[in-house]
User: Which sequence fits this backbone?
């Protein structure tokens, strides 16, 4: 009974923390655009809440006349005069009117600028970190603008941080990911470990599900480039004993995962455009450059099944030769099966300097 109460208390804390945001007692005056994506967007929108502006990068050559809103989220209880599916003409500045719960109308200006044809991921050198309200650090300038997420918002309720910043030299940081023991109570409920991870995307506290770590993660960031390769610095030390979620020792050792997908997302359909993947349990004691090729189009039988999209959908062979992606997903994890609570306690992966290579 005490164990059940303890776990229930943790879940309550998690749900309560998910509801904390723009706190206000009474009718809320907040009328912010918190996120927005439009069709063919090249990178994450830059939102300035002080000036009420949104800057959106668009790839060269894209027709700006009729862009549709794919995603828009606002302050709690706020509404706007434009929503998902509505059109924007960003040949000139557009305006979106957001009405706060208290009736105040805030005018937001939406601007477009032309992106590089060879884009990189923002803050992919991992030298910039911000301190969260919980006191721990996450990669990026701040929670609103970062493209990076970790599983820390879920594990910190257990006083665990499986992903931390590692200072390699003065002012030069990397991401350290470690597979941690969640303790006997969590283990009794089939969640014995937390694997360290960093990903391009967002951790959504509103979707926390202790039995499914990935349920709270919205993977991917807007992206419009066609890199040939990806270079990552990494080092890896697997833990000694690899176990499944039930505590059974597995015949094979733990392995790290480092991978990236280019995707085309239209409506609710996600199609894979290109894949780059590294999975290994080999010990690598020093930071080493790892160069991965992007394979465009469908993956044939020579590739392992784990590299293939779960929904089985790829862009057509013809489109794969020229189409731009709409999103890029990057993931690195200290235990490849961490989402299934399998891994070796003590597995440690360090990642730094993610660079996309164009030829």
Assistant:
């Amino acid at each position: 009974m005490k164990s059940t109460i303890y776990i229930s208390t943790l879940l309550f804390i998690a749900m309560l923390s998910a509801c904390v945001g723009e706190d206000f007692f009474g009718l809320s005056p907040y009328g912010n655009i918190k996120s927005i994506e439009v069709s063919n967007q090249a990178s994450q929108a830059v939102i300035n809440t002080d000036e009420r502006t949104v800057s959106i990068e668009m790839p060269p050559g894209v027709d700006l006349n009729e862009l549709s809103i794919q995603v828009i989220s606002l302050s709690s209880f706020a509404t706007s005069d434009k929503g998902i599916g509505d059109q924007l003409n960003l040949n000139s500045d557009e305006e979106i009117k957001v009405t706060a719960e208290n009736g105040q109308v805030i005018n937001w200006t939406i601007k477009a600028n032309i992106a590089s044809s060879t884009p990189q991921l923002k803050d992919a050198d991992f030298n910039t970190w911000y301190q969260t309200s919980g006191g721990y650090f996450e990669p990026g300038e701040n929670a609103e603008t970062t493209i990076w997420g970790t599983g820390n918002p879920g594990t910190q309720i257990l006083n665990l941080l499986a992903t931390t910043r590692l200072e390699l030299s003065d002012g030069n940081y990397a991401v350290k990911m470690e597979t941690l023991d969640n303790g006997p109570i969590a283990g009794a409920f089939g969640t014995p470990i937390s694997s360290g991870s960093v990903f391009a995307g967002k951790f959504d506290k509103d979707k926390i599900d202790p039995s499914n770590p990935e349920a709270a993660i919205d993977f991917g960031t807007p992206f419009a480039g066609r890199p040939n390769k990806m270079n990552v610095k990494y080092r890896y030390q697997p833990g000694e004993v690899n176990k499944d979620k039930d505590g059974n020792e597995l015949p094979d050792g733990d392995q790290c995962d480092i991978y990236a997908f280019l995707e085309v997302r239209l409506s609710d359909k996600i199609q894979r455009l290109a894949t780059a993947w590294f999975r290994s349990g080999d010990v690598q004691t020093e930071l080493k450059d790892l160069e991965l090729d992007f394979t465009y189009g469908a993956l044939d039988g020579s590739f392992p099944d784990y590299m293939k999209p779960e929904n089985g959908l790829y862009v057509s062979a013809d489109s794969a030769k020229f189409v731009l992606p709409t999103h890029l997903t990057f993931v690195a994890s200290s235990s490849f099966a961490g989402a299934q609570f399998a891994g070796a306690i003590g597995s440690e992966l360090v990642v730094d300097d993610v660079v996309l290579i164009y030829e």
About this structure: The first strand starts at residue 33 and ends at 38.
